[in-house]
Amino acid sequence: ETGVTQTPRHLVMGMTNKKSLKCEQHLGHNAMYWYKQSAKKPLELMFVYNFKEQTENNSVPSRFSPECPNSSHLFLHLHTLQPEDSALYLCASSQALTGGAEAFFGQGTRLTVV
Amino acid sequence: GENVEQHPSTLSVQEGDSAVIKCTYSDSASNYFPWYKQELGKRPQLIIDIRSNVGEKKDQRIAVTLNKTAKHFSLHITETQPEDSAVYFCAANEDRSGAGSYQLTFGKGTKLSVIP
User: Fold this and answer.
1) Mean pLDDT computed over A63-84
2) Contact A44, A58 (CB under 8 A)
3) Which of B88, B104, B111 to mutate to test the interface with A (most CBs of A within 10 A)?
4) Min CA distance, A16 vs chain B (Å)?
5) Does the pLDDT at position A114 exceed 70?
6) Percent above pLDDT 90 for chain B
7) pLDDT tens figures, B28-58
8) Closest-CA residue to B54 (of B64, B45, B42)
9) Is B27 an interface residue toward A (CB < 8 Å)?
10) Are residues A2 and A105 in contact, defined by beta-carbon separation less than 8 angstroms?
11) Could you give the CA distance from residue A42 to residue B6 in angstroms, rounded to a whole number?
C-alpha cells in the first residue's frame, strides 16, 4: 500500500443520484489531487488542494464538487452526472511545496453513470 | 500552462529488446520529470524521476535522459521482460498558481507490450 486509500473502489450511480468519493492519505503530505482517467484523456487533472486550500480547478463542471476538510482527507461530491462522466477517478497526494515531489496515487474509484 | 506530449502511444517490442518512450514539455520553468508505470487495473506508480540539474539517471534496466535546451526527456528500458508490459506516463511539474504549489501534468501515456 502506498498510504493513499480511496473508497469506494467501484460505484454505479444514476444520473439523478448524489454520491461522494473519499480519499485519505497517511503520508503527511500537504497537497492532494483529483485526477480523472478515461480512454480519451488518460490522466486529466481536476482539482488541486494545497494545505486545504483549493489552488486549481481545471475547468471542471460544477456537477463535481471537491471538499478538503483537512490535509489528510479529500472528497469529491457528485450530483446529476452524465454517462460521459464514467471513468476511473484517482486521488493522489504529494509534498507539493518542494517542487520535485513524487505523487502517490490511490487505487481509484471506478465510476459508472447509468 | 504546461503541455506534455508523449510518443509513441503504443509500442510493441520483442522480449530482450530495448524500448524508448519520448516526451516533450513546454514550460521552461519545469524542473522535475517523473515517469509512472500503470499495470492493468492498478494505480500509477513512480518508476524513475529526474531533476533539471541532471542530464541522465539510471536504475538497473531503466534510464531517463533530459535535454533542457530542447525541452525533451526520454525513458529507456533495456532487456525488456514480459512484466514490463504496462502503460507508461511521463510528467512535468509546474507551479501553475504561482503560489509555490507544484502539480504534475501528464502525457497521454504509452502502452508497452513486450512479446515473449
Assistant:
1) 94
2) yes
3) B104
4) 28
5) yes
6) 78
7) 989 899 999 999 989 999 999 999 888 999 9
8) B64
9) no
10) yes
11) 12
